[in-house]
Amino acid sequence: KAKSVIGSFLRRNYYHAMHRRRLQQSNDAAALIQSVIRAYAIRKIFANVLVRRLEESQHFASVWGRAIASLDDVSSSTCWADIREQLIDIKVGLDDEMLDDTDQKLSRAMEDAVQDESSGDDDEIVTDVIIDSEDLVPDGAVTNQATRNLNNSSTQWLSFQMSSHVVKFLQQGDKKYRSFFVRRMRQLASGERSRILQKPLKGSKTLIYETYLEQKSGHRILWTEEPFSPPRIVIWYVAKHKQVSRLMQLIDDSKSRSARQQMPVTLVSELQNEGLIPQNEKMNVLLDIFGNVPLKVYDVNFNAINEITKESWTPQLHLTDEERDIVEAKGTVLVLGRSGTGKTICISSSIEFDRQSTAAHDPSFTQLFVARSVRLCRYVEGAVGEDNRTSFLTYARLLNDIESILPGSTRNFNPSQRIDFGRFKRDFHSHSSSNEKISALILWTVIRTFLKGSIEAFQTPKGILPRDEFVEVERLGKNRCRIPVELREQVYDEFLQYQKYLQDEQLWDDCDRVRHLLLRMNHAKQEDPDAFAQVQRRKVYVDEVQDYTQLEMLLFFYLSGPNGLFLAGDPA
Predict the structure, then answer these.
(1) How far apart are CA 358 and CA 355, in angstroms?
(2) DSSP per residue over 190-253, as a string?
(3) CB neighbours of residue 422 within 10 Å
(4) How far is CA 539 from CA 98, 299, 319, 328, in A?
(5) What tens digit of pLDDT does each residue of 554-572 get?
(6) Residue 442's CB: how many other CB atoms inside 10 A?
(7) Edge to edge, what strands does the sheet with 390-394 contain?
(8) Do residues 401 and 393 touch, judged by C-beta distance below 8 A?
(9) Is 509 exposed, middle or buried (0-12, 13-18, 19+ CB in 10 A)?
(10) 34, 37, 43, 44: CA torsion to nearest 10
(11) CA angle 67, 73, 78 (to 5 degrees)
């Protein structure tokens, strides 16, 4: 009987084991097939990109191959495309893993940590194995400075700054991390210093510290002490331990780029003595670790640090004196600067400042950012964050939205009947019968800027500038309109032919559409205030304002009123 029972048991387990093995083989085969299909589909979709990258790599190797072969400590990248892809992959990977709150193992660790927090026990002692596996102990030149700072355990901080990356982690990451973060900041604020609170990183060119957010999940708080006036803590990132080394390099690179942009002290003193720059030295500007733009930081006071644990927590944006003068200015603001001077950064700061200063006390507060580029809209939206009170629209999308909301449309602006510059040059200007042809670009610019797109043209019954106001130099001024006097009659004659061409072919241009829309908005403001209120915004922010005509600028004034515009443009 025992032999029968044992045999039956072995047969059942044999069949179960075979079933599990077949199931595992089936799953492995399915995964292999899926990976092959995905790889084939990706190669097919990105074939052109792959070929271009391959050509770049071959060209790079042919030019720099011998130089690379002669170096001993060369990186594995062999083309600029590889280096660029590595930087992009790092940034994406950090965001993806930071928000991975569904991992079961991490959840169990956080639950245990919450229990430890509630019991009031101190942090566990990290075993020697864990410590030895980290390459983060101080050495070299950093060691001496780190030792001096560690010995100064009585240092207390009243406030600190955190980057937008940390704010994103606290607001979008797991809520349990907030209490851990507050606990660590309180310990640092009270002057506590230990290995788990202020640990200098090994291999960094500048002094960078890490603080254990919570030991079991492996997250680290990366921060530095910046020698500003007064000195302050800047928290750069909260990340997993395996990302610390790469982030340390990025922080070093950011501080190096910031230092390169500073003028030598001797040159600053010389310029100050000559009265070319103010006597008060300009505050250092930190750069973001992922781009050559100013680091977006927020001020946090230790007396109100418990606010971080609340859902309604909104940190206060830190502004330099120059930025504060711009974003706190009342009424309509116009910021002019050449490309790369930070106009878009000022717009982003103004949007966030207005959110914090006005939206908290006024539930009806709304904002609108307008740009012609979809990419620019996405950039600003990513910089300031999503909010149901703020819209980020391209100019074309804005016109469509206003037309769909306002009542009383008497004309249909079919896109196929639209005249842009390309169609103007091809279908009208090339067939012009004028004896002395004026450049298509000059004629198109004059029509959009003065003859149909100016405020003077909008104020006329037909929406076009009268001949005498355009021909007489005193009306527009020689500096405003630089068309020679002897050509203005001919320009106006061609303009009248263009207007007749539009009427005969039942076509329209942007000036016609905007003028019609302004008339509808004016009518809705008087006859249907509710519909007009739907398109209005408390604040309107417009970038690259030099690309808009006066007529289009009037549209923005209609949307926001005379004191709700923030404009930025290039004076060139």
Answers:
(1) 6
(2) TT---TTTSEEPTT-SS--EEEEEETTTTEEEEEEEE--SS-EEEEEEEEEGGGHHHHHHHHHH
(3) 9
(4) 34, 24, 20, 13
(5) 999 999 988 899 999 988 6
(6) 12
(7) 333-336, 565-569, 539-542, 367-371, 390-394
(8) yes
(9) buried
(10) -140
(11) 55
Axis-axis angle for helices 2-45, 47-69 (nearest 10): 90
Angstrom distance (rounded) from CA 480 to CA 560: 27
Contact 289, 251 (CB under 8 A): yes
Give the single-character DSSP code of 438: P
Please answer whether residues 162 and 223 qualify as being in contact, where contact means their C-beta atoms are separated by less than 8 angstroms: no
Q: Which residue from 426, 456, 414, 416 is spatially nearest to 549, judged by alpha carbons?
A: 456
Query: For position 269, what pLDDT does the model report?
Result: 67
Q: Which helix (H) or strand (E) segment is 568 a member of?
A: strand 565-569
Helices 244-260 and 80-98 pack at an angle, to 10 degrees, of: 120
Q: The tokens of 32 are what?
A: 């292999």
pLDDT of 56 higher than 50: yes
Dihedrals φ, ψ of 566, to 5°? -130, 110
Transcribe 56-74 into DSSP letters.
HHHHHHHHHHHHHHT-SS-
The 3-state DSSP class for residue 256 equals: helix
The DSSP bridge pattern shows strands 199-200 and 209-214 to be: antiparallel
CA 187 to chain centre: 33
Nearest to 201 by CA among 132, 138, 133, 249: 138
Q: pLDDT tens digits, residue range 441-479?
A: 999 999 999 999 999 999 999 999 999 999 888 888 777
CA–CA gap between residue 26 and residue 23 (Å, rounded): 5
State how far the Cα of 464 lies from the Cα of 35, in Å rounded to an integer.
Answer: 63
Mean pLDDT, range 70-96, rounded to an integer: 47
AA letter at 532: F
What is the distance between the alpha carbons of residues 460 and 449, in angstroms, rounded to a whole number? 15
CA distance 511 to 122: 70
Phi-psi region of 103 (alpha: psi -120 to 50; beta: other; left: phi over 0): beta
